[in-house]
Amino acid sequence: MRHVLGLLGLIAASALVVVSAAMNWRFGASLGNTEFDGHVYGLASVAADCLKAIVPFLIIYALKTRKWAQAVAGIALGIICTGYSLTSSLGFAALNRADNNGARLIKVTKYNDTRSELKRLQDQISWMPKHRPASAVEAELQNATSQQIKLKGRRRQTIQEATKDCTLTNWITRKYCPAIFELRKELAISEEAAKIDERIVALKNKISDATSVAAAGKTDPQADFLSSLFGLKLEDTQTILIILVSLLVEAGSALGLFVVFSMWKMDETQLKRPVRHRATEPFDEQGQGQHVATTRLTNSAPEYETRRQREERFRSDNDNDHSGIEAPASLLLENKPEERDPILLPKNEMDRYYEERIEIAEGESTTATQLYDDYCEWCDDQGSNPMSQIPFGKHLSKMEIQKAKIAGRIRYKGIQLKKKAKTGSSVRVA
Predict the structure, then answer these.
(1) In 10 A of CB 189, how many CB atoms?
(2) Which residue, 9, 187, 204, 220, is the most exposed by fewest CB within 10 angstroms?
(3) Pair 331, 351: CB distance under 8 Å
């Protein structure tokens, strides 16, 4: 489960780093006067953003290794990179919000103009007198102008020919043209009404296609809602939202990877078993009050220790205590750097525990749980911090103590616990 959460956290933190780098690139590119200058600013912004995510690891490493100058330089570099990245993300967020609000304002303005024009056309068509469809009026007008009348000499002409399209002043014009004029007037009204109807239909379709934001008439619905909720000004709310977005991206990209890797590095036994501290000093087996020579883990000890360093520290301490304890065979193997245990053992502690609490017994075996509980009890008596169970098992394996799975439990063969810890801890094995 811890690895699944770590993987998900790594994906989320990496996504925030990519988003922050893209925001910085976009804003940095907008600062250049030419295309090349924009690329230069963009690359510098991306590099600063990536360095911002790495700096926490460098600072912690410098502090642990007591390289104070490098730590101070890392802190200064982190402040500068984070500050630049924060200003870039603020600028990007502000520009993006301004562009979106401007686009919404244009939509709202067009929507309002469309509604105004629709209302004007509807009022205009309501003021027009009653009229028939243009096709019916046009047909009646055609019949009226093509009507034939008798003239002197029994000649026949249409009204349009006799009046020259109602332009002459004679008795024919006075008799027939008023009706034609009324038909022409009605035809003009009908044609104009038809055009207005087509325009009204187009405007209604345009309004139906408009977004809900345009219909609501708000350029920034989120800021408007939060302003009404908390009683703030719209401008103040927009500023707060811009800052929140920038802080989210910058904090996640700067510290996300560091937090994820820190949690992932923790050992499961460290999470389950708290470290016990004891202030008393250990005594020898005779109880004469003489301090047993041990090397405790202090805050000044380096975090990582190679096998050669442990051998040198072993020889140095043995030269001081003259106890005659020989170095364990596990430290005299080939000189290879090994991975550090979650809790580093004091020197010779495992060998002393083996000599004081374990004895060789052919045909006997002891469970791993009983052995580790006895070891923790022994560490409490000695006033030292016990290692976790996994490194403890590794040390037993280095001592060439065989283990096997018997009745569903891990047992160490050929050994048993001394004294009272021996009770109920051993079983016969074939």
Answers:
(1) 17
(2) 204
(3) no
- Calculate what percentage of the chain has a pLDDT beyond 70: 75
Nearest to 178 by CA among 191, 166, 162, 163: 166
**Type of residue at 352:** R
Nearest CA to 389 out of 273, 249, 303 is that of 273
3-state DSSP call for residue 383? coil
Closest to 284 measured CA to CA, from 328, 327, 321? 321
Q: Where are the domains of the chain?
A: 2-112+219-265, 130-216, 279-428
Q: How far is CA 5 from the centre of its chain?
A: 14
Reading the block at residue 64, the tokens are 């642990």
Supply the DSSP string of 78-99, one letter for each residue. HHHHHHHHHHHHHHHHHHHHHH
Task: Say if strands 148-150 and 156-158 run parallel, antiparallel, or are unpaired.
Answer: antiparallel
Structure tokens at 102: 């401007």
Dist. CA 403–CA 17, nearest whole Å = 47
Cα 416 to Cα 157, 324, 356, distances in angstroms: 140, 25, 12
Location of structure tokens 């009983």: 370
- Which DSSP category does 299 fall into? T
pLDDT single digits (tens) 92-120: 888 888 888 888 888 888 888 998 999 99
Contact criterion met (CB below 8 Å) for 8 and 15: no
Which tokens go with 327?
Answer: 């170095």
CATH topology of domain 279-428: Arc Repressor Mutant, subunit A (1.10.10)
Of all residues in the chain, the percent with pLDDT exceeding 90 is 13
Q: What are phi and psi of 67, to 5 degrees?
A: -95, 85
Q: Is 409 helix (H, G, I), strand (E, B) or coil?
A: strand
pLDDT (tens digit per residue) in 200-226:
999 999 888 877 766 667 778 888 888
Let me know if 67 is exposed, middle or buried by CB neighbors in 10 A (0-12, 13-18, 19+): middle
The token pair that represents 5 in the structure block: 């959460």
Give the tokens for residue 202: 């187009």
Dist. CA 163–CA 370, nearest whole Å: 129
**Position 31, amino acid:** L
Residue 332's CB is within 10 A of a number of other CB atoms, namely 12
CA-wise closest residue to 307 among 344, 264, 273, 336: 336
In 3D space, the residue among 92, 79, 75, 99 whose CA is nearest the CA of residue 20 turns out to be: 92
Rg of the chain's alpha carbons, rounded to an integer? 47
Segments of the chain scoring below 50 in pLDDT: 267-305, 307, 314, 317-346, 421-430
